[in-house]
């Protein structure tokens, strides 16, 4: 597989979370570019993942280091720095959440997966309820990964959220972007979860490391392929497929980050 083919494969991945995607991007640069990549390549990545604050922030740092002549050092050191930051986030999260036993979440997040694994190591009665996260069903991916870890999992459709959210101790979601006012952007379905959590008086925690924080206050919602929802040629049927949505800070109990 050529470097271009591998990059296109990364760009086409719409089921992985932003943390593993960023790791793959940096690894790709380390293996294929001993010198700064073309600016159009950086822009291509940014255009595809502009909804992910950590990837946008990384690319901005990458540009700065290219201009300073420290590109090679930046990409070489990035993995270790991110690993240390990730370990710190997981430790902070598990310490704050260890008194809960049952959790509800959505989509497929590397961070929430590891937090659940650590909580399970602390208490093997931990149970996780996962909303399947249509239309790409990332929740199924997370459910399989949790089950492989020995964790008891219940997978359900978003339509069943009111029933299951009443059953849990705590709601945990990730974030693709954290705004200065504490509002976040996450996978569609998260806003419904947040509203229901408030209705049922359940704490809702967002787990997001510092790289997810953005100074940009704008939220641009993009429409994804309609055939992911329904492949049809019927006239007068408007199919809208949004992957992400904004969740207002008033629904969030707390944001757990490296600087919590």
Explained architecture:
Helix 7 links the parallel strand 2 (127-131) and strand 3 (152-156). The chain is built from nine helices and nine strands. 45% of the residues lie in helices and 14% in strands. The N and C termini lie far apart (42 Å). With 260 residues, it is of the alpha/beta class. It folds into two domains: 3-85; 90-256, 3-Layer(aba) Sandwich (Rossmann fold), CATH 3.40.50. It has helices spanning 3-11, 18-32, 39-48, 53-68, 71-97, 110-122, 138-148, 161-165, 190-199, and strands at 102-106, 127-131, 152-156, 170-173, 177-178, 184-187, 204-207, 244-247, 254-256. Helix 1 packs antiparallel against helix 2 and helix 5 crosses helix 6 (110-122).
Q: Summarize the biggest pleated sheet.
A: 6 strands, parallel
CATH class descriptor name of the largest domain:
Alpha Beta
**CATH homologous group name of the largest domain:** Translation initiation factor eif-2b, domain 2
How many strands appear in the DSSP assignment? 9
């Amino acid at each position: 597989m050529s470097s271009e083919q591998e990059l296109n494969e990364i760009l086409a991945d719409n089921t992985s979370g932003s943390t593993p995607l960023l790791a793959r991007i940096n690894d790709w640069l380390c293996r294929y570019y001993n010198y700064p990549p073309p600016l159009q390549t950086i822009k291509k990545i940014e255009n595809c993942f502009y909804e992910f604050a950590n990837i946008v922030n990384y690319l901005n740092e990458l540009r700065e280091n290219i201009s300073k002549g420290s590109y090679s050092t930046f990409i070489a050191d990035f993995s270790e720095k991110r690993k240390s930051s990730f370990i710190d986030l997981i430790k902070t999260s598990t310490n704050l959440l260890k008194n809960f036993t049952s959790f509800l979440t959505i989509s497929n997040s590397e961070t929430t997966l590891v937090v659940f694994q650590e909580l399970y190591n602390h208490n093997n009665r931990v149970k996780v309820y996962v909303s399947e996260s249509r239309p790409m069903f990332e929740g199924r991916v997370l459910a399989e990964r949790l089950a492989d870890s020995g964790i008891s999992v219940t997978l359900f459709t978003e339509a069943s959220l009111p029933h299951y959210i009443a059953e849990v101790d705590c709601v945990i979601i990730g974030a693709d972007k954290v705004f200065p006012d504490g509002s976040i952007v996450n996978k569609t379905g998260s806003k419904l979860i947040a509203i229901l959590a408030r209705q049922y008086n359940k704490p809702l925690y967002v787990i997001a490391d510092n790289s997810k924080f953005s100074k940009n206050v704008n939220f641009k919602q993009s429409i994804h392929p309609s055939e992911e929802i329904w492949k049809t040629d019927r006239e007068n049927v408007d199919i809208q497929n949004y992957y992400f949505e904004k969740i207002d800070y008033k629904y969030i109990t707390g944001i757990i980050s490296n600087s919590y």
